[in-house]
């Protein structure tokens, strides 16, 4: 079938949700992907910050193949070695003490909020305007986009309060006797690559400690090296009570996790939470391979070096249409003075995959293996197109 015929299947059969780009992707290698017509693209989007090792990294492919031949799935009522080994490896790299696996970012955030509610016995959660925490009913309530809430207002749980991002006074005003948790992205992704003031998270941490409120960082997008440290909250020198992650952690397989301190984690008892697929052997084997690559391939050095170079090169673009260039590591955005959708199309036609978020922000979250030479090609194309 050709592209038009395949896309028509979506039109005829799918529940209408995504507005997709009109290409059918077929295979990838490193930072490149090809569509079914053989057209090549540099992937500046990495499946929304997922394919941290690039596409089809040989060690990741091999780990998945080897594990698939041994055991793909067992019930989570039994132990499996890859998930146990990974738990120890990951937790030991953080300030947290315990882990629970999930299949997606939304599911990790659901579990995190449940844990905070169980720990405190309270029922209010503060989140930020323009934040994104997921599409399930509870994470939708936490997500700070009014227009996503609108059709579901009648069923959204009460107790979620959205306050402006990077505004500590707004948080102080929103806190009540009944506040269970504050959930924030260390850098907002969907909201437009918004980097907060350097002391924002520290101040949240202090308030949370003072009032015994659970401090949750949502590292689903910022995590796994994207911002130049394994987790972005490390940049702000804080120790949250809970961290959620997904996306990059599995390098492309559906893997997520909730990490918590001993104190907070202890609130859950058997029966409080569960999952059929979370931390299954296949995805855990993949996650171990991703972690191996981080340890063996100096990925964080690459993120910092190429990320800084990328931002510098973008800042050199002298265009009236550019209102701001911002980001950290390889999570980078350009805010335009007008809606950006047409530039996404033009760049795709020129062989580069990006997306536009918050209407006017062109967002770039490429594989963490991207090189300066790839960046040069992209910036040249962007320069011409803008
Ligand atoms: N949190 C953040 C910060 C995200 O960026 C996203 C997805 N864009 C999610 C949660 C939800 O993740 P998922 O789509 O895997 O449920």
UniProtKB/TrEMBL annotation:
Binds 1 pyridoxal phosphate per subunit. It is found in: Cytoplasm. GO terms for cellular component: cytoplasm. PROSITE patterns: AA_TRANSFER_CLASS_3. Pyridoxal 5'-phosphate binds at residues 105-106, 132, 218-221, 276. InterPro entries: AcOrn/SuccOrn_fam, Aminotrans_3, Aminotrans_3_PPA_site, Class-III_PLP-dep_AT, PyrdxlP-dep_Trfase, PyrdxlP-dep_Trfase_major, PyrdxlP-dep_Trfase_small. SUPFAM superfamilies: PLP-dependent transferases (SSF53383). It comes from the Archaea. One of its GO terms (molecular function) is identical protein binding. Its cofactor is pyridoxal 5'-phosphate. It holds the Pfam family Aminotran_3. May also have succinyldiaminopimelate aminotransferase activity, thus carrying out the corresponding step in lysine biosynthesis. Belongs to the class-III pyridoxal-phosphate-dependent aminotransferase family. ArgD subfamily. This is Acetylornithine aminotransferase. It comes from Methanobrevibacter thaueri.
